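Hi U.,

Before I forget, here's the chain from the pilot set. I'm dumping it here mostly so it's searchable later in email.
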Amino acid sequence: MVYVLVAIAIVVLALLVVAALVIPRSRRGVEAPPPPETLPAGDDAPPGGGVDTAAPPRGSPAGTAATAAPLVDVPVESTIDTADTAPALETPEPTAGRLTRLRARLARSQTTLGRGLLSVLSRDKLDDEAWDEVEEALLAADVGVGATTEIVESLRTRTRVLGTRSQGELRALLSDELVKALRPDLDRTLHSTPEGDRPAVVMVVGVNGTGKTTTCGKLARVLVADGRTVLLGAADTFRAAAADQLATWGSRVGADTVRGPEGGDPASVAFDTVKQGTERKVDTVLIDTAGRLHTKVGLMDELGKVKRVVEKQGPVDETLLVLDATTGQNGLVQARVFTEVVDITGIVLTKLDGTAKGGIVISVQRELGVPVKLIGLGEGADDLAPFEPESFVDALLGDPVP
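Structure:
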């Protein structure tokens, strides 16, 4: 009997111990793991969402994850900086006639190419020494050897045949030769008009330090001034300030900016920008890429990848190369490599207001067979102008002598 009582006591004690351990825990409740995050669908979805940039599933909602494509190393969740927070929208200057309004910015080039040449050509005697001076002036202005030879030979022939001597007549001859060297027949149209249901896609490329991101911001103003709606893509993910800088430019004219995480995959950001532009039905998608040295093979290959990924959704309508006019003939070496990698369709020549080498326009076009479509003539927001050969030469030569 005693053993039975002892056994009962042990069982009761064990039950009490178990109750003491279990009941308090049940009162506290066991914390359940947080539910998995779900991404919003529809228009509120973030523009990245780990999209498979090599073969995106048609009709898949933004924000769905997909298997990474071979061409894209890291999926990117992009975000959009909206322009709604801008205090006030600016109205860019009309682009028509903008180059004429900025002619004073070409004062330095004017001294070399314009007044310098005219002073030599208006001498009483145009001997071999005078023509050597004309040739030297053209070469010093970065016109290039081939173009300089053609211009000088044509001028010598025409002045000898026509017997022209007045400065007005000489100015007209020189203007005609320079305009001819600038090839006014080239198509300088900026292809920024949407085709069907997709926006026009413009990529901007270039080396470090050419003012590429600033040029992108100014180009957005050019497009808005011409009546386009614009979406910007900050595909320069390696420079921390680039996306902020681009978003600031865009906010001034009501253009949103698609951006990814710092150090993220630029191809994914570019892809997402085009995707968002299509969904929003904007006219033009403008993609800013990271500056890169033309000698860095890996970076140049990456630039080619960005373009290939974008082309999964449709063709790139414009690939603009930004060149610094102050680099002169050195810029041509850079330009050749870029044209081989991404098939450049137009040149944006910046800092022409800070150089006496306005002839770089002639040599760039002659060497590459690619038209100069825009030129930068200052640091102002509207100092980027469509290139017009006649207006450019008129500005270089200065006002005609009565």
